[in-house]
Amino acid sequence: MAKQRELEGLTAACERQRQEYTEKEELIAAMEEYVTQKQTSGMALLRQLQTDTSSAEQQLQQLRGQVAAEAQRHREAQEQRQRQCEKPRNLMEQLPLPQQKPYRPPLFSRFLYPEDLEEM
Fold it and tell me: What is the mean predicted confidence (pLDDT) over 23-48?
C-alpha cells in the first residue's frame, strides 16, 4: 500500500511536470511565432524605409540640380545686368564731348551777323 501511494505520488508529480513542460512548449511556440511576426513586419518596415530613403535621396538630388541650375541662371543674369550697366558708361567715355557754339541772338533780331546772311 505504501508503495502504491508512493507510485501514485510519483505519477501525479510526473503528470504535473509533463503539464508544465507542455505549457512551456506552447509558450515557446507562441513566442517564436510572435518573434517571427515581428521580424517579418520589421523586415517589411525596413524595406519600406529603404524605399522611402531612396525616393527621398532621388528627390533631394533633383532639388539640388534645380537649385544649382537656378543659381547658375541667377549668376548669369546678374553678370549680364552688370555688363549692361557697364556698357553705357564705356560708350559715354568713348563719345567726343559736344562742342559749344558761341551765343548768337535769334536770326530775326535787329542785328545780323555776316554768318547769318550766308545761311539765308
Answer: 95
